[in-house]
Amino acid sequence: MTAKTRSHWKEYGTALCATLITATAGTCYGWPSPTLPYLQSKDSSIPTSKDEGSWIVSIMILCSALTPVPSAYMADRFGRKTTLLLGAVPFIIGWVLVIVAKSVAVLYVARMFSGLGYGIVYTVAPMYTGEIATNEVRGALSTLITLMNKIGILAQYCIGPFVSMRTLAAINLILPITFVITFIFLPESPYYYLKFERTERAERSLRSLRSGDIRLELKNIELNVQEDMKNKGSWGDLIFEATNRKAMWISIGVFTIQQLCGSAAIVAYAQIIFKSTDSKLRSYEESIILGCVQVATCTLSVVLVDRVGRKPLLLLSALGVGLMNGTIGTYFYLNTWHKASVEHLHWLPLAVLVIYIVCYAIGLSTVPYVIIGEMFPTNVKLYASCVAHIYTGISMFAVQKLFQVVEVSLGIYAAFWGFAAFSLIGLVYMMIALPETKGKSFANIQARLRRDVARDNASKLMTVEY
After folding, report:
1. In degrees rounded to 5, what are phi and psi of residue 198?
2. Could you tell me where the beta strands, DSSP code E, fall in 303-445?
3. Where do transmembrane segments lie in this chain (predicted)?
4. What angle do CA 289, 294, 296 make, to 5 degrees?
5. Distance CA 380, CA 440 (A)
6. What's the rounded Cα separation, in Å, for the pair 43 and 54?
7. pLDDT given at position 351
8. This model's pTM is above 0.90
9. What is the pLDDT of residues 39-59, one digit of tens each?
């Protein structure tokens, strides 16, 4: 059976079960949107201030920065499957704690556990799905990780407004338990087995993932693993290799823009943001519309990235989110100080945030991870990915925590104007610093980075001599 005629249903089925855990991560990410309005209301069984609410939102993401390095080690030592199964445990503990919580402190601890699981999932799930997939469906399976996350967020927007906080947590608890029950029977990555020369187990794993003859593919995977083992990298290679250092600075810059454009705050505080408007729709209805747009557009960048290119998509995305942030910031400013001038524009916040989500989805949402995959050699790619996850977790925490602080002290419009400024500064940065990698081989990308490093060194030398 050729690659073109081979059925891929086994790969899709396995990936679907595996990505139930990323849907779980999505439920944790979206949970504050419908829950915070209740916690901060007069009817709350756990009275929560705005400052405490911002910690409930952001502490999860801060804790997610603690687990990428240990989970990467565990994935290499104990297996991708085992590590993902262990990653479900913090989610289960987190939701159980929410169900029994009687104080804000318990909610903090619950969110900390969810954060630990979040970091494990987003380190290991892309590794697992990438290694079980054939070339023909690898992109689609990678998209499934993002899609399931957005579905988890949308579920919170759709269910949360109509049930109690504890009922929502009980419903969310079903997902990680279902993941464990189904995923425990699925195969480990054949790459992991071959790394330890367990050829028979690798063959059994591959047969459970493929239809038809797998001998040639097994041999190719074995050769790839042997090559990777010969060229093992280290954390130091990210710092001491000039091209890796250059690639790391470019990647960190792009991830900074991804976070400082405000997406993490918009998703987590969606219902609170909409409550600040004078829309004819209820805030939860607008949140549901926003969640549906997220799900619908999450595959857009995957379709466009190989047609349009990485850099144009990122530039268009940064420009779009910058303009939308500026627009909604101006709306909130006028709504606060000159309310009569925007009374007829009650539809504007929803329209602007829908456009924001589309602009974010086509570039900044997923393309930074494509850049990580393309700009680093195989022997340091995992280390670069861990650094990116840790940095992203810290940046997301800062955005989610400071959003509430800026809203209280300066006004919600100041927060959006800040996001707009960072987006447009990021646009200029990417125009100057980011190389286009579309259609280029790894050798070409590395050659371009070496030329850039040589040019930078020559420029520094000339400056010193002058």
Report:
1. -95, 75
2. none
3. 54-75, 82-101, 107-128, 140-163, 169-194, 247-268, 288-306, 313-334, 346-370, 382-399, 411-432
4. 95
5. 19
6. 19
7. 94
8. no
9. 999 999 999 999 999 999 999
CA distance 290 to 284: 10
**Residue given tokens 């009569």 in the structure block:** 340
- Within 8 A by CB and 6+ apart from 217, the residues are 134, 206, 210
Which of the residue ranges 52-66, 79-93, 124-138, 166-180 would you say has the lowest mean pLDDT? 124-138
Phi, psi of 2 (to 5 degrees): -80, 165
Nearest partner of 448 among 460, 459, 433, 462, judged by Cα: 433
DSSP reduced 3-state for 338 = coil
Give the torsion sign (CA, 106, 285, 274, 143): positive
- Residue written as token pair 């998509």: 313
Higher pLDDT, residue 196 or 392: 392
Q: Is 154 exposed, middle or buried (0-12, 13-18, 19+ CB in 10 A)?
A: buried
Report helix angle 9-18 to 165-183, nearest 10: 140
- Vertex 43 angle, CA 40 and 45, to 5°: 80
